[in-house]
Write a structure and sequence with these properties.
The complex is a heterodimer of chains A (106) and B (297). The longest helix of chain A is centred in the C-terminal third of the chain and has 31 residues, at 75-105. Chain A has one domain (6-105): Winged helix-like DNA-binding domain superfamily/Winged helix DNA-binding domain (Arc Repressor Mutant, subunit A, Orthogonal Bundle), CATH 1.10.10. Chain A is mainly α. Helix content of chain A is 61%, strand content 6%. Chain A has a two-stranded antiparallel ribbon with strand order 1-2. Chain A has four helices and two strands. Chain B has two domains: 2-58; 63-295, no CATH class. In chain B, 84% of the residues lie in helices and 0% in strands. The chains are: A mainly alpha (106), B mainly alpha (297). Chains A and B meet through α2 and α3 of A and α2, α3 and α4 of B.
């Protein structure tokens, strides 16, 4: 089992989840993340995440449109996203069950 | 106003990031608007990019540009270091300090060592910069950016020389100034010297990226930058030795009032100068290493 790091749950996860829908450029990613997760990614945070994801071959840049360059998720990125979402799903599921059980006994 | 701060924050990013993501980030800031929170986020991102750069992005900067970056950063550090060095000179210029410095022992050795390393560092700056300045002057006619850099550097040097000449003439006239006015004049000269030095260093960086320089010349500049960084580290170390020996061997002198207005005392002045020296010598050493690594992969 791999150790989870701070980077595993950083904005990179939100970016990967956004790109799972299809290629997007920076502004479209921030809009999508805000709509889905209710958090705003600042420009420094977003491009920090994009550079890390690109460095790990989890996303790749597409040819630039004007000054806005779209990114798409790679096969490795999809696999990493799926793995993390499964882990989170298990945590959410277990946490909710425990909360319900605690509520029933109190 | 925030848009200007956003551009400044973008400029804080390492060269590799600016080349790779600069246009996109600028477009995003234009799309979203440059709120103060966005500016702060950019500044944090820039700091992180410097402290923990993504290897794949950092690797996009070529060898020669790594030398250019490292060498120009060492020059800027040397300018800032010189300010602390000048303050050290002023702090220890009194007759009592000179008596101690001339005496045999650790204090005298430290003082002599500082002077030798300061001369060595200055010589390395001049020797390393000379071929680059000549190249910039030769190419200034055909390259507008290089011409701008040469003019900026020349203007800074001319301003500094003019202000220093005015100060010397003023001092020779022996005006009947109070110590407060003297301190103000000196502070104004130091500020102007700092501004001119920083202007020169920034012009050097701009010019260095605008001209074609043979790899051998860049390698020589990197070697000189290593000498400058080593001199800075040595001076900082000897200043620490000087400070400790002064506090232990001459506590009265160490706590005596110092500076133009009698504050702070000599020990605190030296401590502050040492802190500045260390704070500048560390990035200088890292930059010299980057320049050396670019020149000798």
């Amino acid at each position: 089992m791999r150790y989870i790091s701070e980077r595993s749950t950083d904005p990179g996860l939100l970016v990967l989840a956004s790109l799972a829908e299809g290629p997007k450029h920076g502004y479209a990613i921030t809009q999508d993340v805000e709509a889905v997760a209710g958090v705003k990614l600042g420009p420094g945070t977003l491009y920090g995440a994009l550079s890390r994801l690109e460095g790990r071959d989890l996303i790749e840049a597409l040819p630039s449109e004007d000054r806005r360059r779209p990114y798409k998720i790679t096969a490795a990125g999809s696999a990493a996203l799926e793995e993390q979402l499964r882990l989170l799903d298990r945590v959410v599921d277990t946490g909710m069950k425990r909360l319900r059980a605690a509520g029933a006994t109190s | 106003m925030s848009a200007r701060f956003a551009r400044l924050a973008l400029a804080l990013y390492p060269l590799a990031y600016r080349r790779r993501y600069g246009e996109e980030m600028a477009a995003l800031v234009e799309d979203e608007g440059a709120s103060p929170r966005a500016v702060a986020d950019l500044a944090r991102g820039a700091l992180r990019a410097h402290v923990r750069p993504e290897p794949a992005v950092a690797a996009t900067v070529g060898r020669d540009d790594r030398v250019r970056l490292g060498v120009s950063a060492v020059l800027l550090c040397w300018v800032l270091f010189t300010l602390a060095g000048l303050a050290l000179y002023k702090t220890t210029e009194g007759r009592s300090f000179e008596g101690l410095g001339g005496a045999p022992g650790l204090l005298g050795v430290a003082r002599l060592g500082i002077e030798i390393l300061a001369a060595l560092g200055s010589a390395a700056v001049v020797v390393g910069a000379a071929p680059l300045v000549l190249a910039a002057l030769r190419q200034a006619r055909s390259r507008p950016t290089a011409r701008g850099a040469v003019l900026l550097a020349g203007g800074c040097v001319a301003t500094f020389v003019g202000a220093t000449a005015a100060l010397v003439v003023l001092a020779a006239a022996k005006p009947d100034f109070s110590s407060g006015v003297e301190a103000l004049v000196l502070a104004a000269w130091i500020l102007l010297a700092a501004a001119c030095g920083i202007g020169c260093a920034l012009a050097a960086r701009r010019g260095l990226f605008a001209i074609a320089v043979p790899r051998r010349t860049l390698a020589f500049a990197a070697a000189c930058a290593a000498v400058v960084a080593a001199a800075m580290a040595g001076i900082a170390l000897l200043t620490l030795v000087y400070l400790v020996d002064l506090v232990v061997g001459a506590p009265g002198l160490a706590s005596s009032p110092n500076g133009p207005l009698g504050e702070p005392n000599a020990r605190h002045s030296l401590l502050l100068q040492l802190a500045v020296m260390v704070a500048v010598a560390i990035p200088a050493t890292l930059s010299a290493r980057r320049a050396w690594g670019g020149a000798h992969p």
